[in-house]
Each structure stands twice: as C-alpha cells, then as structure tokens.
Amino acid sequence: MRDFHQLQIWQRSHKLTLAIYKATNSFPREEVYGLTSQLRRAVLSVPTNICEGCGRKTDADFARFLQISVGSASEVEYELLLAHDLNYLSDEDYNKFNSEIIEIRKMINNFINKLEH
Fold first, then answer.
1. 3-state secondary structure labels for all residues of 39-106
2. What CA dihedral angle connects 36, 29, 19 and 61, to 10 degrees?
3. Cα separation values, 40 from 61, 113, 116, 117, Å
4. pLDDT digit string (tens) for 5-44?
5. What pLDDT, on the 0 to 100 scale, is given for residue 16?
6. Which of 22, 16, 28 lies closest to 72 in space, CA to CA?
7. Residue (of 107, 80, 105, 78) closest to 19 by Cα position
8. pLDDT at 1 over 80
9. Which of 46, 52, 49, 51 is nearest to 17 (CA)?
C-alpha cells in the first residue's frame, strides 16, 4: 500500500481541486446543479482515484484507478473550456487551470507507464 500524500500527482491534483472549487463559487446560481456540480465532481475524481488506487494491492489495480483519473482529467479539460466559453472563467484562470490539468494528466500517464513496465 502506498501513501498517496507522497505522490506529486496527488498533491498537484488536490491543489487544483481546491482552486477549482473556489473558482466555481462565482459561477451563476443556475449552474449549481449543472456545470458547477459536474466540474467539481470531475476534478474531485482525479485525486480521489489516485487515493483509491494507492489502497490496492497490485500495480495493475493501481494503474486501473490511475486510468480513471486520466479520464476524469480529460473531462475537466472540456468543462474548463465550456466554463471559459460561457464567460464563467477569466482567460487567466482558464489558462492556469487548463495547463495544470494537462500537465497532471501527462504525469499520471507517465506514472502508469512506469507501473506497467
């Protein structure tokens, strides 16, 4: 069993989750059960699946949960674009969050490759 706190992929995805939760506080009220909720669930899924994978016994099981994190990161990337195009996120926030989720996804994929080889 691994300690997820020690993993940079978890640390960065947790930090991004906190930032996106804060940013979505300013989304329109009518989005509370729509984009706000969906974006929060997707971004939360990234570090959550890293944690769950850390609790698994085999590298193959861990890699499976990391793959789910990658899928969630892709979902976040789209939802950030949508939020930006709807003018819910500033250019600055969008660029910062988008580049971070892309980097996190790359890091997770690299980690998966190390586990599988």
1. HHHHHHHHHHHHHHHHCCCCHHHHHHHHHHHHHHHHHHHHHHHHHHHCCCCCHHHHHHHHHHHHHHHH
2. -20
3. 25, 27, 30, 33
4. 999 999 999 999 999 999 999 999 999 999 999 999 999 9
5. 98
6. 16
7. 80
8. no
9. 46
